[in-house]
Amino acid sequence: MRMYRAILLLLLFAIGSVFSGAFAQDMNLQPKYGMLPKNEAQKAADAKFLASIDDYYKGNRKKAAEDISARGWQFLRQGAIPDAMKRFNQAWLLDGSNGNALWGMAVIQAGSGKLDESLQLFAEAEGIFGGDMDFATDYAKTLGVAGARAKNESLLNDAFDRFARIHEKAPQHTLNLQNWAITLFYVGNFAEAWKKVKLAEATPRHTELDPRFLAALQAKMPRP
């Protein structure tokens, strides 16, 4: 069963920029290798990697990219952020249209506070994963955080519209409701945030609600 990836984005936002400094030092730890030119040694390493993958997967690079991006998500779940980014980059090198790799990169960038870069990656991946509720939830959450931090009404309205559309399609999606509540919290609408929390608490996966967020909301406004 595919991991409930929206949980990861929430955890990475909690971590903040703890790991962000290391990413500036190594192109392997930047999305799409930082889109930087590679030297001859790096090009040779890429060629060797691709040849070994082609040999193992009989030339099926899309399958290889799916397997490697899945390994990236495993690393991400374990908190091994650099290893996750390396796998996502390898998957992208094999197949630039691999949505799982782009999604993973976007989640890591969001967790490190690089919201503009994250949103660019989410937008690129949306054409591939636009109908996936977990992806849509991650994207909407990042839009909400970015909009709240920048006080950007356009981003906030986009986020709220997305939360509402997801809720129409998947009313039991716990993390969507929580992310909706979190964004309302960020803009100071605590009463509406509690309404979304109450809806989330009635869903089957209500145990996944973040107690730290609930405590923060309670501190701003006691539960109605």
If you had to describe this structure to a student in words, what would you say it looks like?
- The chain is mainly α and 224 residues long.
- It folds into two domains: 1-129, Serine Threonine Protein Phosphatase 5, Tetratricopeptide repeat (Alpha Horseshoe); 131-224, Serine Threonine Protein Phosphatase 5, Tetratricopeptide repeat, CATH 1.25.40.
- It has helices at residues 6-15, 20-23, 40-57, 61-77, 81-94, 99-111, 115-129, 133-150, 153-169, 174-186, 190-201, 211-220.
- Helix 4 (61-77) runs antiparallel to helix 5 and helix 10 packs antiparallel against helix 11.
- The radius of gyration is 19 Å and the shape is elongated.
- It starts with 5 loop residues before the first helix and ends with a helix.
Topology:
Elements: H1 6-15, H2 20-23, H3 40-57, H4 61-77, H5 81-94, H6 99-111, H7 115-129, H8 133-150, H9 153-169, H10 174-186, H11 190-201, H12 211-220
Helix pairs in contact: 1-6, 4-5, 4-6, 5-6, 6-7, 7-8, 8-9, 8-10, 9-10, 10-11
